[in-house]
Amino acid sequence: MSTIRYEAPTTLDQAVRLFSANPNASLLAGGTDLLVQFRAGLTQPSTFIDLKRIPDLTGITLDGSGLRLGAAVPAWDICRHQDVKRLWPGFVDAVGLIGSAQIQGRATVGGNLCNASPAADTIAALIVDRGQCVIVGPDGERTVTVEEFCAGPGLTVLRPGELLVAVRLPRPAPRTADAYLRLIPRSEMDIAVAGAAVSLTLDARGVCSAARVAIAAVAPKALLVAAAAEALVGSSVDEQALDRAAAASSSAARPIDDKRGTAAYRRTVAGVLTRRAATIAAARAKDR
Amino acid sequence: MSRIHVHTAINGEPAEFLCDGHQTLLGALRDELGLTGTKEGCATGDCGACSVIVDGRLVPACLVLAAEAEGREIGTIEGVATDDALHPLQKQFLEHAALQCGVCTPGFIVAARALLEANPNATEEEIRLGLAGNLCRCTGYDKIVRAVMDAAVEMRNAVR
Amino acid sequence: MAIVYLPHALNAYTGGRSEVAIDAPRVLELRAALERRFPGIQAELEQMAVAIDGQIHHDADYERVEQRTEVHFVPRVAGGA
Amino acid sequence: MSEQTFTTVGTRPIRHDGVDKVTGRANYGADISLPRMLHGVVLRSPHAHARILSIDTTRARSMPGVKAVVTGRDIPLVQAKLAMGEAALDLRDMGDNLLAHDKALYHGHAVAAVAATSLDVADQAARQIVVTYEVLRPVLSIEQATARNAPILHEGLKTIGRPTIETKGPTNIAGKLELKLGDVERGFTEADVVIEREFRTPTVHQGYIEPHACVAQTGEDGRATVWTTTQGPFVVRDACAGILGMDAARIKVIPTEIGGGFGGKIPVYLEPLAIVLSRKAQRPVKLVMSREDDFRASGPTSATVIRMKLGAKRDGTLTAASTSLWYEAGAYKGSPFGAGAMCVLACYRIPNFFIESYDVVVNKPKVAAYRAPGSPMAAFAIESVMDELAETLAVDPIAIRLKNAVVEGDRAPYGPSYGPIGLKQVLVAAAAHPHWKAPLADSQGRGVACGFWFNAGMSSSATVTLNADGSASLVTGNPDIGGTRVAQAMMVAEELGIEVDRVRPCVGDTDSAGFTDVTGGSRVCYATGAAVIQAARDVKDQLRARAAKIWDVQPDAVGWNNGCALPPGAAADRQPLSLTELAPQMAKTGGPIVGRAAVNLPMAGPGFAIHICDLEVDRGTGKSKVVRYTALQDVGRAVHPGFVEGQMQGGAAQGIGWALNEEYIFDENGVMENAGFLDYRMPVTSDLPMIDTVIVEVANPLHPYGVRGVGEVPIVPPLAAVANAMHAVTGVRFTRLPLSPPRVLEGLVAAG
Q1: What is d(CA B69, CA D292) in angstroms, rounded to the nearest whole number?
Q2: How far apart are CA D43 and CA D37, in angstroms?
Q3: Do A48 and B20 lie within an 8 Å CB cutoff?
Q4: Contacts of B21 in chain A (CB under 8 A)
Q5: Which CATH class is domain A5-50?
Q6: Residue C59 — pLDDT band, cuts 50, 70, 90?
Q7: Where are the domains of chain B?
Q8: Cβ-based neighbour number of residue A287 at 10 Å
Q9: pTM given for the model
Q10: Last residue of a domain, one of D567, D601, D635
């Protein structure tokens, strides 16, 4: 334990080289998952490679094509970015739900993705917002969708030596908005027992022309629920459409019983939250 | 393996210390620098007792590596009072009897200061949500929230 | 005479008697008198607190039990904070 | 007594230790460091129930930097009990709990400890200790413990029954207590309504924010000094002395500031280990529990199963009660089953009752005291049933409680008559409180519940030393967990007629303070307070004698008023002498003035409370939130109302946590799955509303100012107050805690 090294590369190249040379290294962004796992003896890295001094990972860039969010930007900074908040209120809500104000000062979206917890708050939101993961490794750069990025609990598609550099979100179409809701037992500080994200587009008459629905904490990874989206498309997001969407989410859920909730409970709540998130997203889309 | 030499600034003064690669900032503050006002309640980022400021951001010192402090500005409870006066939050915590055992108090004061500096007009609800990462088991939070609300008034008046 | 209330919990010794008048100056002698009357009871009583006219003492050996005093033997209680 | 007028009592001065605590200067358990100090790590059992076949420490001992290793062999099993005023601590069990000897009895049970030059080395060394276990089937509930052919934790365990009960063969039932009055069968036949329910509460933890921590230094002469975070420095000293076979005079315990206790910092977990390690290493040793260890291996409070049957006439008059209470003790006997039995019916006049209560050992950490031990679970049962009775009879829930409330002169269920008590007063105050009549939204409901706690007495000492400038120093032996320093200083100020800032209150160590029982049982302001007042009055008497000397009159003739000695008639020409005038003349008039007192008081007058809770429930998810809360309590006399309110608010918050989300979750092997603040869900700031308080003062005749205990009663009502509010919103009677969202939704679905 006393021989663990700490490295803080200042360029992406350095980071990639260091990581390739130290396959047992742990990449450190916010550390809110990594250091807890390390303390619990779940991971024994040879080196901590701190990514927070690399400009490619720590910037927020917004242009005509959309957002490029550095993987190591802390939640606190994202929540205070007024333009990002305006364009993706659901995603920013999800970011804002991660832990406490203290945790927000550390936790990153990149870390949330790489930790690949089924209960991660941002992943479902990123999925409905058509997020893309920018990955860099010894063989260069590649991009995968967020729904592909996580493979299961704690598992990602990152290959040896690769690291997540940024997340890209395309600019939302007109009259499009997102929403994310989760259920936790307390008002703050808990891990989601179930979560639901919805992004939808309304046409001029208020009819839903496109939708994406994703649910969290009810399967080994966040699930994109096509059936729930289909239930909303073509409707005015009315009670019947919401009921169908909720039912679709509940039946798509593949939850387990654990210390945070029962499978039956999660299944029900995934539907309830889908319904409520869709309602919020529709209201937001109307205002655009 | 030699230890890491870290140069930083703590509460506005240059400071340096040696640490191990896996040592946390909390460990370094308490064990290397003798700044024991920052407390360990859980070591998992769930209680807020180790709240400190790093480069203007409120963070749990238990989830920061000490080596990360290189070149950063650190603020701890020991730097909240000025040479001649308690901070309004400290005064209001005392006036309101907002501490019982007092072990969560440094974390609350550091976090509440960060909260009020970012949002001087925070409502009761905003204060409660903003301080949700600081556990107190003695007070039921009532007097803490009142102390923070009154400190906010005092801080706003001082700015005018 | 002190009126001693015998708890249901000590029925094994008292045969179900619920109160008895005892002439004794202090709790120490009162317990001894009860032992003479109900053999074996003293060891149990020593584990218990004593309420004298409503006030519960944990260490009551030398407390006076005057005329028409009410004496109860009650289980000891632990407290938190 | 209620006509007493006060100058300082009832005001809200700033606590003397406050500035140190808001600036980070105050030193708590883990803040102590000594030169050459070693760091210790405790190796814990990975099994909830296992026979220890062997422990091999060879490799650990040979590691560089390792200075001492201890196992159960180093901790003698002493067949003795430590009288602690309230309850005897069994030193044998305590020794076996410190380090398992033959069997590990819960997951996390300590089996060995290492001291090394750094925490990392100690941690690595602990991993090198090889323990061979024969894993046994764990016993994880009352049902499992009492089942036929249940695994037995302690082969020799015999049920201590009052009345004596026949036990056939080995058992996990350590104790039984019965209380009885009247004819229960007849009582139920006289009833028009009988309600019967079974209630369950989970294992919960005190959740103090500062984990257990200590440093011990043993010298070449074998004398030890221990710095520790404890509610009772004298308990630590006497427990260490008893277990380790040392004279109490060879151990000095210095209490650090304490980051919460609530009963959980009365037993010893680390201190004897630190002493033995430092004796072996001849260097100071620090032991600090991680939060995880603290959950797994300190003392939470009992999970319970309580069956409650209650009968009443149509007008609400209670006729009979029959209740059976089962308390888990954890790995060793000693749950608060006796207290539970005595508390469960203590609020009401019930002419016929039968109470039986059981102490059951299970493979979980040994329970410790937790704020009014045993009473909250019992109140959950009786107060839920009272609520249902009110509903069934269509009467107001406060009115039915008033109708049956005990008053002065009524007999408590454990026998003696109550002195002046305030249950009726708090009920009347609750009925008149605006909260009780305030409108509610559709998604909201309101519940009430009462609570009772005895409040302890026990032994306390105090010393007041007058300084030549007229200020005073106060030394007592109670660690200050919630403002007791300032409250005690206020009593000195009140007696001597000086400002509270001119009194310096000090928490002494075991060498400098007279023997004092724990900070616990709600006893500090009452019992230690009484000693403080007596010591201050001793100072006053000595001052009168000094004035008499100056005036050359008889001391008895000198009066005292308002901080001044008053000349007797014989010296009517003299001016009164104030304390500030007399103090500088101490040396001339006979030497230092030191007032002292030592008391052993009977239990304080019992405390009663009623809480009103408004709960909002999300029917879609089962999630609830307390939106308004009022706690009303008889406190006897509020010395520092700010800290009295703080006790009421803090107790209410802990009880709300117990009701809504807190619980130990064990897997089938007895491993706690949520040993951290993330998943052991204590209330956070945004979970709670402001907690309104109403202080009722029915003076306690046993204290000079009328003080009665305050700290424990407020955790008693919330469990039922919340559950009753939940019923008011949902129409569902929940009998199992916590009322977590999944459980509530399940209940809603089941009810259709």
Answers
A1: 27
A2: 20
A3: no
A4: 3-6, 47-48
A5: alpha beta
A6: confident
A7: 4-79, 88-159
A8: 7
A9: 0.97
A10: D601
Fold exhibited by the domain B88-159: DNA polymerase; domain 1 (1.10.150)
**What is the domain range of residue D531?**
18-25+457-601
The Cα of A266 is separated from the nearest Cα of chain B by a number of Å equal to 24
pLDDT tens digits along D101-122: 999 999 999 999 999 999 999 9
User: Could you tell me which residue, D162 or D323, shows the higher pLDDT?
Assistant: D323
Given a contact cutoff of 8 angstroms between Cβ atoms, the answer to whether D472 and D496 are in contact is: yes
CATH number, domain at D635? 3.30.365.10
Q: Answer whether D258's CB lies under 8 Å from D210's CB.
A: yes
Shared domain check, D415 and D384: yes
Which pLDDT band holds residue C78 (cuts at 50, 70, 90)? low
**Could you tell me the CA-to-CA distances from D686 to B129, D41, D436, D725 in Å, in that order?**
5, 36, 23, 19
For position D110, which CATH number holds?
3.90.1170.50
Total domains present in chain D:
3
- CB atoms D86 and C77 under 8 Å: yes
Amino acid at D640: H
ipTM above 0.95 for this complex: yes
Task: Give residue-wise pLDDT tens across range D531-588.
Answer: 999 999 999 999 999 999 999 999 999 999 989 999 988 778 889 999 999 999 999 9
Pair D550, D651 in one domain: no
* Domains of chain C, earliest start first: 2-74 (3.10.20.30)
A82 Cβ contact partners less than 8 Å away, ≥ 6 residues apart? none
In the structure encoding, which two tokens stand for residue B118, read together?
């970012």
Reply yes or no on whether the pLDDT at D52 is more than 70: yes
Please report how the helices D397-404 and D375-393 are oriented relative to each other, as an axis angle in degrees rounded to 10: 110
**Which superfamily is assigned to B4-79 in CATH?**
Beta-grasp domain (3.10.20.30)
Query: Closest partner residue to C79 among D163, D600, D712, by Cβ?
Result: D712
Do D519 and D537 fall within a single domain?
Answer: yes
Interface touch A39/B43, C-beta < 8 Å: yes
Residues B117 and B88: their CA atoms lie apart, in Å, by: 12
Tokens (6 digits) for B6: 């870290």
Instruction: Count the neighbouring beta carbons within 10 Å of the beta carbon of residue D552.
Output: 8
